[in-house]
Input
Amino acid sequence: MKTMRQLAFAFLFTTISVSIGYAQPLTAFKESYVQESKKEYKKAISTLKKASDDSYEVNLRLGWLHYLAGQLTESLDYYEKAIAQRPTSIEARLGYALPASTLNHWNKVTEQYQTILRLDPNNSVTNYRMGLMHYYQKDYKTAEAFFQKVLKLYPFDHDSLLMLGWTKYMLGQTNEARTFFNRALLNTPTDSSATKGLAALK
Output
């Protein structure tokens, strides 16, 4: 009987411990979301760190909060931890790309995007961002391929229509550029960039 009581106590203790283990991060997450909504990013970081949790979820969120706080190196560190914990995580790699691009670490950004596209070749966010990177590097042919890849799956995506319009413009394909600017305006009639694009074609 003594053994059974000891086992029951051990089970109850474990259950309570697990509940507390989840309750503490949950409270910290809730509070940090409120602080983030008030743009109190450093407070949100401090709150989350009190959870004393080194989980993927905490590291991912700390990566985001440090990015919002302008603490870019720390942001990269937390995103790297999250990626190490979940190597197939696309969200962590997309998050990593934010501070890396702000720091102009374009090789690291490209590395993350290429890994994402190996995991998910049709990832629309990554294909669009790859298109943008190549557009601003004036590699218009490569940019065109990425924007078209997005539009194959999302034919009415405004941002891709607009950027493909500008890419066609840069390639000297004026008729195609006009078509894509007009389609971008169908999505967002007040879009000033598409309007400027059409004006540039006259």
